[in-house]
Amino acid sequence: MERREALTVRFPAGLLSRARELQAEGESLNDLVVEATRREIRRRQALQAHEQIVRLRRQIKARTGVHPDPVPLIRSLREGKARDE
To answer: Does residue 28 lie within any of the structural domains?
Structure first.
């Protein structure tokens, strides 16, 4: 089991009551908050990765320009036509 640290968190009253209403049977409020925090961390990491991919795509596009659509070339190669025709 992971090492845990104690933390005091002050929730808005409405949010806390809503969280208590949605707790699963046998689930502690601590478990609910820990799982919600894990999900939020994964969401934010995914968002950061997406933003990094978008940045890299822009940089590559600026450096290399827009590439032609490869579909016609692939189709012609599949049909046995020479690339230089």
So the answer is: yes
In a domain, 85, yes or no: no
In contact, 31 and 4? CB cutoff 8 Å: no
Reported as a single tens digit per residue, the pLDDT across 47-85 is 999 999 999 999 999 999 988 899 998 998 998 876 555
18 closest CA partner among 8, 6, 33:
33
Rounded distance between C-alpha atoms, residue 38 and residue 22, angstroms: 17
pTM, two decimal places = 0.70
- ∠ CA 80-83-84 to the nearest 5 degrees? 130
As for how many domains the chain has, the answer is 1
∠ CA(80), CA(82), CA(85), 5° rounding?
130
Helix (H, G, I), strand (E, B) or coil at 66: coil
pLDDT for position 81: 73
Domain for residue 4, yes or no? no
